[in-house]
Amino acid sequence: MGKLLSIENVRWRAGGKEILRGVSFDMDLHQFVTVIGPNGAGKSTLIKQIAGVLPMQEGDIRLRGRSVRELEGRERARIVAYVPQTRDPDIPFTPRELVEQARYPYLGAFGKLSQSDRRLVDQAIALTRAGSFVDQPFGTLSGGEQQKVLIAAAIAQDTPLILLDEPTTFLDPSVQDEVYELLRQIRAERRVSILVVTHDLNRAILSTDRMIALRAGEIVRSGAPAEIAREDVLREVFGSEFLTIDHPTSGHPMILPRGES
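Predicted structure:
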């Protein structure tokens, strides 16, 4: 069957500009990988191509050994779930209805949820601790609550790969911690792979097995957090100066802006 995910020389152009320039990497089952890089590096474009939000132009993406060009929509949706960066407050559904809709790849001709479907929906809601607001209008929820609902939908979709684009953008620090703790829990309990696009370097370091650094549409570095969280590597990726210190409890390298002397 091969790798869970294989990205093979993917290129993407828009408005006469090459956004991705021959990106290639693999992911195995039960990995937690983060994609980092400066604005305009192509991070969101890459994850949207894996999710199927953007069509393929050049290269190939393979899920469980099969090209996405060969996969029908429901087949693809049984392998990969996607949590977008933007949360639409005008979604006209309750959180429960949104999570139920994530079961669509498995529904029969009449689109009715089975007992098994409802059990998976309830488990996803419980795991994300969304039960207290699951029947409220989605637009009345806080940003953190909305993000938990969207993650619950990805869990209920029951795929081996979950993609998240900037999952902690505009969230309070305590909620950001909750989201990453939830992702670690999902990975451990569901034994899925998680691929996250993020600007939050320190949370990526604390959570991830592997970091992939994009710059100008190309992978410039890929490796364990300790290999990426070095001042010379960060300078290469971001074109800025950083300081690194060891986390007082975990020992992981943490990143600080250099600031003024």
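Summary: The CA atoms of residues 180 and 191 lie 16 Å apart.
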